Amino acid sequence: MVKRIDASSSHDQSLADAEGFASSRWPSRFVLVALLVAATFLAFAPALNNGFVNWDDDYTLVNNDAFRGLSGEHLRWMFTTAYTGHFQPLSWVSFAIDWYVWELTPFGYHLTNLLLHAATGILLFFLVRRLLAIALPLLPDASRNLGALAAALLFSVHPLRVESVAWATERRDVLSAVWLMAALCFYLKMTAAPRGKRYGIMLGLAVLCYSLSLLSKASAITVPVVLLILDYFPLRRTSASSSKPQTRTLRFLLIEKLYFLVPAAIVAGLALRAQLESGALRTMADHPLGLRIGQAFYGIIFYLRASLFPVGLIPLYEQDPHGTAFDAANVWSAMLALVITVGVWRFRKQHPAWLFAWLVYLILLLPILGFAQSGQQIVADRYSYLSCMPWAVLAGAGFAKALASRHLQQVFARGVVLGGAFLAVAFLILASRAQTCIWHDSLTLWHAVIEQAPDTGSAHANLASAYNRGNEFELGRKHAYEALRILPGNRAAHIAVARSSSELGDFLTAEKHYETALYIRPADVIRLTDLAFVKTRLGKNDEAEALFRRALEVDPNNGFVYVSLAGFLAGEDRESEAAALLETAIKIQPDLALARLRLSILLLRDRKPQDAIATLEEGLRLLPDHPALTAKLAWVLATCSNDELRDGTRALRIARSVNQPGQPVLASIREALAAALAETGDFAAAVQLVEQTLADESILVPESKRVRLVEQLKHYRRGEPIRE
Q1: For residue 205, which of 146, 186, 211, 628 is within the disulfide window of CB 3.0 to 4.6 Å?
Q2: Is 360 a residue whose pLDDT tops 90?
Q3: The last residue of a domain, from among 403, 437, 471
Q4: Which residues sit opposite 379 in a β-bridge?
Q5: 291 falls in which pLDDT band (50, 70, 90)?
Q6: Residue 5's pLDDT is what?
Q7: What does 427-451 look like in DSSP terms, one character per residue?
Q8: Residue 36 within any structural domain of the chain
C-alpha cells in the first residue's frame, strides 16, 4: 500500500508538463481571497436583516444578563456555567464584546457570525493550498490556487453552512472553526520545520489555537486523531510512509499528539458535565443504544447526501417519537455506509485520498452522531460545519488536478470546466441566500419547517410561542394543541397552551397546562409565578401565595419573584410586607426598575413622597432615561402636595428629556409632561398635549389610563394643576 501511495503521485509528473493556463501564476491568491469573501457575503447577506428567533436566541441572548460584561464576575460565569448545556466560554466572551458594541441589535451579532465564517473560509483556502503543495508538489501554481479557491467556496457558500452562520446562537460553530483552521495552519508549518526552536514555536501556537477552538465549542475533540491521519497522508511523516528526512517514528507522533489530547480530554469532560447539569443529555431509557446506532448511520449518509444535493434543508429534523433502530432509513444508511467503506478501501491504492477523506469525515462526525444525544433532532445542518470540510478539500484537489490536466489546455475545454464550476457556485449562493431568509424571524422559521415537515411537533410548539408573543393567541393555542397531538408530553406546547388560554380568559385550561408543565420540570421559577398569577384570577389566593413563596425557595436571588409576590401582597392590603419584599428585590438587583417603580407607589400611598423621590432618583442614576422611572419621577415632582418637594420646572425638564422625536411615545410620559406644563402655568399646552394623546391611535393608552387623562383634562381646562 505504501509503495502505491507514493506511486500514485507519478501522475504528478504529467502535471508539470502541462502548458498554457495551468503553468501560469495568475490569478493572484489575494484576488482569489477577495472573490471568496465577496461570494461569502453575497450568500449570507440576508442574515444581516434577520432578527433573533425564539429558538435559543431568547434564552441565550435576549433574556440573559449574565454575559453582558467582561468583569471578573462575568468571566467567572462564562468559564464555569452549564447554561444552555454547552461549555463555550470564548463564545460567551465574543457575545459580551458584541453587547458592548451593539447592545441587543441583531445586526451586530449576525455581522460577527458572518465575519467569522468568512475568516474560516480564508484560512481554509490557505490550508488547502498548502495541502495541495504537499500532496501534489508538481501542481502548477495557478491550478493550486484555483483548487484551493474551489474547496473554500464549496465549504463557505454551501447551504449546509446557513444554520451555523444565520443563527445567532450558533456563534460557537464559526468561532470554533476559525481557531481550528488557525491551529491546522500552524500544524502544517510545524511539520515542515526541523526539530528545534521553530518546531517548538509552531507546535505551541497550534496547541494554543486548538485549545481556543475547544473553548469556543467542544465539537473538535477528535481532532488529535485527525492529525495522526494527516501525518500518514498527505504529510507522510511516518517512517513507514515516506523516505523524507523529516519523518518521525510512530512513538514520536503519538507523544506529539498528547499536547493536543490533553486539552481535548479536559474540555470533553467539562462539556459532558455541562450537558449533565443542564439536563440536556438524554438517558438510555429515553433514547436506547440501538436507536443511537441507527441514528448514527442515518447521520453519516445524511450529511454526505446533503453535501451533494443540498435540497430540502430545514432547521429542525425532529426525532420520530416512535422511531426504532431498524427503521428503513437507518438500515439503508447502514448498508450504504458499509458499501462506501468497502469501496474506498478497495480503491485505496489508486485513490488514497478518498479513504483518508472518509476516515476524517467519520472521526469529525463521531461526537455529534447521537451517541451522547441531547435535544430532539436526529441530525442538524450545523453538525456538518467541521465534518464536511474533508469533502470540500477532496473536491478542490480534484478540481486542481483537472485544471492541470493536458486534456484541459484547450480554451474550450477550460471554459466548459470553469463555466460549470461558476454555475455550481452560483447555484449554491442562491440556495444559501434562500435558506438564510428562513431565519428572518420566528414565524418565518417555524412556518418553513412545518411546510416541509408538517408533523414536527416542536416546530408547532415554537410557532405557538411566537404567535403568543405577537398577541395572536387564537393561532398560538391552535398550534400548541397540534404540537401536543404529535408530542403529548411536550413541555413547551403545554406552556404555550397555558399562556394563550390565560390571555383569552380561559383560566381553568391555563391552570391545567401550567401544572402539567411544572410536573415535567418542578423547579421552573417562571412557570411557578405564571401559575400563581392564574390562581389569583381563579380566586385561589392561598395557593397563589404558596406558589410565589415556592418560587422564592427555588431561586432566592430572583428579584422578579420578589416583585411578583409583593404585587400579590399589595393587592391583599398587606402593603408593609410588600414594601419589605420590594426593598429586598432592590438589594438583590439594584437596577431592577420594576421594583423601584412599585416601591415608589407604595411609599406615596404611605405618604412618604421624599422617600419615593429618592428611590426613583437612585433608579435613574443606575438606569439613565428609563421611560417608566422618568415618567414617575416627573409626575411626583409635578403633582406632589408637599410644597417643599414639588418642583414643576424640574419635572418639565425631566419629562421633556424622554419626550423627544425618535424616542418611543408612551402615555405615561405624556401624562407627566402635561402635569408639569400645568404646574408651570402653561395650561393651554397641557390641554393640547392630553387631547393629542387621547386622539392619537398610535399611542397605546389602557382604558384605566384613558379615564385618568380625561379627568385630568377637566382640571387643565379649569386652570387647575394636579395634586396628589
Answers
A1: 186
A2: yes
A3: 437
A4: 317
A5: confident
A6: 40
A7: HHHHHHHHHHHTTSSHHHHHHHHHH
A8: yes
Please give the backbone phi and psi of residue 318, each rounded to the nearest 5 degrees, phi first: -80, 145
Total domains in the chain come to 2
Listed residues 407, 437, 467: the one ending a domain: 437
How many Å separate Cα 223 from the centre of its chain? 24
Rounded to an integer, what is the distance from CA 132 to the centroid of its chain? 34
Domain that holds residue 676: 643-724
Q: What percent of the chain has pLDDT over 70?
A: 92
Q: Report helix, strand and coil shares of the chain as percent, to nearest 5.
A: 75, 0, 25
Per-residue pLDDT tens over the stretch 429-441 = 999 999 999 999 9
Is 491 contained in some domain? no
Residues 6 or more apart in contact with residue 636 via CB below 8 angstroms: 600, 604, 609, 612, 613, 616, 645, 724
| Confidence check: pLDDT of 406 > 80 | no
Assess contact for 626 and 595: CB atoms under 8 A.
Answer: no
Distances (CA, A) of 407 to 21, 395, 587: 12, 18, 78
Angle, alpha carbons 191-194-198 (nearest 5°)? 85
**Average pLDDT estimate for 165-176:** 97
Residue 147 lies in a domain: yes
The pLDDT mean for the chain works out to: 90
Split at pLDDT 50, 70, 90, the class of 107 is: very high
Helices marked H in 57-169: 57, 72-80, 89-102, 106-135, 141-156, 162-166
- The amino acid occupying position 54 is N
Residue that has been written with the C-alpha cell 422625536 in this structure: 661
The pLDDT value given to residue 664? 67
CB 635 within 8 A of CB 675: yes
Instruction: Give the pLDDT band of residue 242 (cuts 50, 70, 90).
Output: low
Cα–Cα distance for residue pair 344/359, rounded to 1 Å:
10
Show contacts of 227-234: CB within 8 Å, 24+ apart.
227/187, 227/257, 227/260, 228/253, 228/254, 228/257, 229/356, 229/359, 229/360, 229/363, 230/187, 231/191, 232/356, 233/5, 233/135, 233/352, 233/353, 233/356, 234/131, 234/134, 234/135, 234/353, 234/356
d(CA 567, CA 247): 74
DSSP-based three-state secondary structure for 379: strand
pLDDT digits (tens, 9 = 90+) for 594-652: 999 999 999 999 999 999 999 999 999 988 888 899 999 999 999 999 989 999 999 99
Q: Are 106 and 122 in contact (CB under 8 A)?
A: no
Which helix (H) or strand (E) is 318 found in, with range? strand 317-318
**593 within some domain:** no
Measure the CA dihedral 434/439/441/445, to 10°: 90
Report CA torsion sign: 277, 282, 284, 285: positive
Question: Cell numbers of 548, please?
Answer: 410565589
Is pLDDT at 698 greater than 90 in this prediction? no
Neighbours of 717 (CB within 10 A): 14
Q: At what angle do helices 525-537 and 491-503 cross, to 10 degrees?
A: 30
pLDDT band at 331 (very low <50, low <70, confident <90, very high): very high
Is 6's pLDDT higher than 50?
A: no
pLDDT of 19 > 70? The answer is: no
Whole-Å CA distances, 230 to 121, 355, 501: 20, 12, 59
Count of CB atoms within 10 A of residue 437's CB?
Answer: 16
Q: How many degrees, rounded to 5, is the angle at CA 508 between CA 507 and CA 509? A: 90
